[in-house]
């Protein structure tokens, strides 16, 4: 089993391979991570791992609170994640490659990264200035009938987009071409749908592409039917990802 150790960036969202992740980094533990990544030669990838938080907070407390209003909040690398941070995270995440790391005058960072590959979380180390993790790479198996399922998912996804656009009483631009490679389709649709974090996490850790596509097909049909019956639902811009508070 081949493993790798990388800096760990927990988020209240799921990152999929091929998707862009903008970050506004202001906490000291993550600023330290970015300063370390900047030491990597420019010709080498500046990689870190992103995992979705199962139980905890993306941003650590910054002021005294309950039950002791005078207690100083924990600002260490595992702040907000309990004594054993590993159990606070989902165990399948995604490696991110930071294409841009720009330090601002106030010491915060503007980061633009892209998800590259899935990994399984084996252990978490909180002994340094930021969390690091031992990770095992997960291969993406196609599974049976992935190609046909991808075609069905794309058709269902277009209907889903049209229903969302109709809910806002405006037309949806169809100028952008959607991919046809099954695994890329599965990740794009998983990221674009309006789903909660546990559902997105389930899609990320699907055993193979075909299984993920089957799940997405059911979700798309269900969500499209709901939107059809509730036309006043607020729509979301499916082409714009949420920027993390960090």
TrEMBL record:
Q: In which domain of life is the source organism classified?
A: Bacteria
The UniProt entry, under SMART domains, shows: LON (SM00464)
Residues crossing the lipid bilayer are: none
InterPro entries reported for this sequence: Lon_prtase_N (IPR003111), Lon_prtase_N_sf (IPR046336), PUA-like_sf (IPR015947)
Domain Lon N-terminal: start-end pairs: 6-224
Stored PANTHER family:
ATP-DEPENDENT PROTEASE LA (LON) DOMAIN PROTEIN
Q: What protein name is recorded for this chain?
A: LON peptidase substrate-binding domain-containing protein
């Amino acid at each position: 089993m081949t493993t790798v150790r990388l800096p760990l960036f927990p988020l209240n969202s799921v990152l999929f391979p091929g998707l862009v992740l903008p970050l506004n980094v202001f906490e000291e533990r993550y600023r330290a991570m970015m300063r370390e990544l900047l030491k990597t030669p420019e010709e080498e990838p500046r990689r870190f791992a992103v995992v979705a938080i199962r139980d905890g907070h993306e941003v650590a407390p910054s002021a005294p609170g309950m039950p002791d209003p005078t207690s100083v909040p924990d600002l260490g690398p595992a702040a907000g994640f309990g004594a054993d941070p590993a159990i606070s995270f989902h165990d399948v995440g995604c490696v991110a490659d930071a294409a841009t790391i720009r330090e601002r005058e106030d010491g915060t960072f503007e980061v633009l990264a892209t998800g590259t590959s899935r990994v399984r979380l084996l252990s978490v180390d909180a002994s340094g200035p930021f969390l690091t993790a031992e990770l095992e790479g997960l291969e993406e198996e196609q599974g049976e009938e992935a190609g046909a399922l991808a075609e069905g998912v794309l058709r269902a996804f277009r209907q889903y987009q049209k229903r969302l656009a109709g809910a806002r009483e405006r037309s949806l631009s169809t100028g952008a071409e959607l991919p046809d490679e099954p695994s890329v389709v599965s990740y794009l649709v998983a990221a674009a749908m309006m789903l909660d974090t546990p559902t997105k996490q389930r899609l990320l850790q699907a055993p193979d592409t075909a299984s993920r596509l089957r799940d997405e097909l059911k979700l798309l049909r269900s969500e499209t039917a709901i939107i059809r019956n509730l036309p006043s639902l607020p729509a979301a811009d499916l082409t714009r990802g949420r920027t993390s508070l960090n």
